[in-house]
Amino acid sequence: MSVEAIMHTQFPEGYTVFFGADGKVIMTPQSLEHSSTIRSLQIDTLALGRHAKVTSDVYIDFPADENSAPDLAILREDAERQGKRYSFEDVLLIAEVVSVSSARKDYDDCTAKYGRYGIPVYLVVDPYAAEVVVHTQPTGTGYIAAHTHKYGTGELPIDLADGRTFTLDLDELPRPEPETGAR
Fold this sequence. Notes:
Elements lengths: L2 H5 L7 E5 L5 E5 L2 H14 L8 E2 L4 E2 L10 E4 L10 E2 L3 E7 L5 H14 L4 E6 L4 E9 L2 E9 L4 E5 L5 E5 L14
Parallel strand pairs: 4-6, 7-8
Antiparallel strand pairs: 1-2, 3-5, 5-7, 8-9, 9-10, 11-12
């Protein structure tokens, strides 16, 4: 996309737009629900240790130019960057937070992709449905197991492939606030 085209493009309201060095245009929805849910997930990862390898919105290399910048990724402790990025082989858990515009991608496309690449645990965190879907047992087309957990049902321990446990506090995940009139 040329600079001239960028200057005259009307991007959708509520998105942050990034321009990658490789010519990709990345549009990230920015909502209070999305941001505060990612923050809540990050807080829960602190129990893994202050220096645990956890990323948010950071590119992870997947084969065949299917790179992703998941909302949250927990990496193996011995993971080492290859150049500027980590490899999908270092990932223990990925969480994607559903936004209004990303539901199909998070529930369908990412489930197939992360399963295909053997990501051991994939979480779909949906503030609008007030639920978390935990996908485990990856296959070439997705995951064998998917378990849904409602918000407000306590702590959810999730075993990681390296023997650690990530505990997600379902009572603390933020819910969307009802919209009120303009002030």
